[in-house]
Design brief:
10 strands; six-stranded mixed β-sheet; about 250 residues
Amino acid sequence: MEKFLQYDKLSYFYQTKESEIHALNDVNFFVEQKSFASIVGPSGCGKTTMLSLTAGLLEPSSGEIKLGGKKIEKNDSRIGYMFQRDHLFEWRTIWQNIILGLEIQKKHKDAKALALAEELLKKYELYGFKNKKPRQLSGGMRQRVALIRTLVLNPSLLLLDEPFSALDFQTRLNVCDDVYQIIKSEEKTALLVTHDISEALSMSDKIVILSSRPATVKKELEISFEGTTPLKKREDKNFGKYFEMIWRNLS
């Protein structure tokens, strides 16, 4: 198995006014290329800290994270990040939001990048909305726009920090399907952080369960269902068994 994203003896400490906090301790696991992995764990265990370290927004206290065999650097351009909210700018059109990252990277005149942006809008049924404002779109459509904005930068790895938490339950189920199928269709490697066990199970090939702080890897689960979409996977006869196993390891 190819260790595309690899965590090797990763530890992280940070200072508060009162004391030093040991957030992560000797975290070791890997994610295969083009697979979808999720991190779950008790509240406050350091899941979002893991994503910040993976994105190069924080420096490990010790150990390292490698992507494609190369150490992750500060603000690594190989990595795309989807946040809890879509962070679309209401005064910009959908097209202007999509190419925002290209503007920041001074690539907004790159014909190949612009062609990819148009292709993705057409492929995922948003081209007709390119001149609309975000407020004119549904929550699910906004999340698709946010994902396309990230994909236009052609990252090797997508990090998802509870990207569906602001949506109502029914919309959330549908958007999970949309986002999952886009990521799989574009053959991206993805790492999701979520507190929702069912969400992690329905989207993942692998689930990493972290312990309480200082977090270490308590268990890794390889997930296999007959269904091909998150909604279909929730109907699998083994879904409940996996759920119970993860729940027991979180307590």
